[in-house]
Every structure is written in C-alpha cells, then in structure tokens.
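Why Alpha/beta-hydrolases superfamily protein? Reviewers of the renewal asked for a concrete example.
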Amino acid sequence: MNPGWGDKLALCLGGLCSPCGGCLGTPAVRMYGKYLKKQFNKAGLVEEQVDIDGGETSMHMWVPKKFADARKGGRTIEQQKQPPVVLLHAFGPGAIWHWNAQVKDFCKRLDVFIPDLPFFGESTSRSNQRSETWEAECVKKALDQYGVTTFDAVGISYGGFVGYRLAQLYPNNLRKVCLTDSPGVVVTKEEWQNVLKDLGLKDMLETLLPDNRKDMRAGIGLTFHKPPPVPGCILDGALKVMFGDGLDERRELVEHLMRFLDNPESPLGRYRQECLLVWGEFDRVFPLPLGQKLKAFLGPSAELVVIKKGGHQPSVEMPKEYNKIVLDWLTAEPKVMTEATGKPVVEADGYTRNPGSSDSAAETGEAIAAEKLDGNRGGLAEHMETSLGEARAPAGDVELARQTLTS
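Here is what the prediction returned.
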C-alpha cells in the first residue's frame, strides 16, 4: 500500500486499495484491519478486554505488554516520571482506524494506552448511560486496573470531548491534556447552527452514522481538507465492517452530543492542567475560531497550534507534523506548576509570575475572559480580541500560534 494517501485513506473510515490498485471491498477492509492490529503489536501493544462495573461494560484496550503482564500477575508498574498517555479516538470506527499513524512514533517514547470507547470497536456495554462524561469514567476505571494513577490524554474530535471530561473529573490524575479539533464547552447554540448551515446539513447524524455510500463519502469530505478518492466498493466494505455493530447505542451518543451542542452548559472552571489545542486550519466541523475561543477561555495554561492546510483530523491528514507537535509537548517538562510547590508558575505563553501575588491577577484575567466570551454570544469575530505571539514551524507546514487574550 502506498504509505502516503493510502494510509490516510485507511485511517479515515477505511478507505483501502490493494497494492495493484484493484478493489477488494469487504474482504480488503477486514484484511487491512488485521494488518493494523499487527502494526499495533509491533509497536509493543497487546489487546486486552477489561471488565468494569461488575462486568456491565467490557473495554477493549491496547496496552503496553509490560502493563498487561503485570496485571495478569497481580502486580502494578511503578509510576515513572513520564506518565502513560491515553489516546481517545474520534467518532466512527474503533481506535485502530484512528491511531495507526501515531502508534509507532508514540510507543517509541511513551507508554501508550488506546481504548475503544464504549460502543465503538470491540468495547461493549449493557449500561443505559449515553454521554461523553460516562465514557470518561469508563476510561478512568479501565486505567485503574493497571495501577495507572497519573496519566496524560490526547483526544481527537469526539475523543476530545471525552478528554475534556477527564480533565474536569480527575484533576489530580490527569497531568496534561491535548484536544485536537474539539471545542469542549465553549460552543454556543448559534455557532453550532451556523456550522450546520455552512455545511448544508440539518444535523450530523447521517454523516457520523452513515448507512450508504453517499453519507460515507460526505463524512470523508468533512474529515479531510483535500479528500482523497475512495472506490465505491471500499465504502461498502467499510460500512459493513466498521458500522455494523452498536449502531443504536452510537446513535444515542450522537443524539446526546447534539443536544449538548444545541444547548451548551455554562462554561466550566478553567483547568489547572497544561492543555495543548491542535487545530486544522481548514476544519469545517469545528472551525478554527472555536479553537481560538477555547484557548481564550482556558487562559494562559493553554497553547494553540494551527496546522496549515489541515482539516478536521490533522492527525490523519498530516501525521508527521501532528506527531512531532504532540510528542514534543507531552515529553517536555510541565509548564504549569501547582501553587503548593512554592516555585514560580510558568504559564504556557512563557509568562512567569510570583505565586504569592498571582491570585488577583489570575482572577482578573479570568473575569475578562468570561466577560468577553459572554459577549461573544452574538458572534466570535466581533467580541473576542486575540494577539498572535511569535510563530514557528516545528515540522513541515505547521504554525504555532500562541493566542493571548487582551483586555
């Protein structure tokens, strides 16, 4: 398979072509799924089924072999300075189809856990819960079984919503969180309706849960800035292999998410965790202004990286650049330290302040952000001021944009 667009296509809902260019349809999709599993094995990961909540939910996990062996032996791995990272996939098929372009590079430098979220891939549940908050709780319970008490999280799109909830629910366990093209709780109903209008859609159900070639192709079109061609028979195969099981439950998850986007809750408190926001320049699902808005809300502990020419999943479209950005950030010393250390707090925008006199300044900055974001209900561009700091290109056609809210 061509290592360029072919791998991207495979990651994006199962676009596949044989080396000779001929289409194999459903058998090819199944065959490539087996190939992806072998690549995960080569990276040092093994498959595990982890039962939680008394067996009500069974989480399919890719975990480092040493953690799997320790669990079987009733042991836990001693906590390392560099904590494990959990990768949270987007909506659609299971994790192997989303993280294939990351697993090799990430596993070289980190202990990586990759779950299929409940009702995706090979994870199942008898629970009647349907929310990203519940899915975050399931991820944490699965990690608990491996003795993982401190970890980082990287989430793409829907996985970013789950990552956002992990940061909210477990501030003492989650060290760093990277959200990729996922705006969390800052989306207003008006903004979401404008997105749907621009896309020419009434809702996202048909795109997220396709049952025909047309809807599948539309989903690929939303994922990529420049969608690659996909043979129709491959789309048919992907529909059968990737979207056949758990359809009703995933539909309920989508409906819950749509209700949330139609009526977003009040903004949550700003995270103490260091946060990296990675955004495709031409994301059509959650356009870049939403990433800028989330950066402003989270404040100086957050950093925004814009990948030029990227779409909704730059991890798929430009994996080399994406991997370098995220890995360099994950493995760097944390820039935000707790006040309890008695040391200066170095914010993500490089600003250093004295903890003893920082509270009032932080509260003032947060109040300014809240005031501007509240005024933003009528339109982001009119009410939010941003200043771009120094830009650099860590890899290829990538731009690091440090967004600082000005008063």
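DSSP finds 16 helices and 14 strands in the chain. This is the kind of structural detail the renewal will allow us to pursue systematically.
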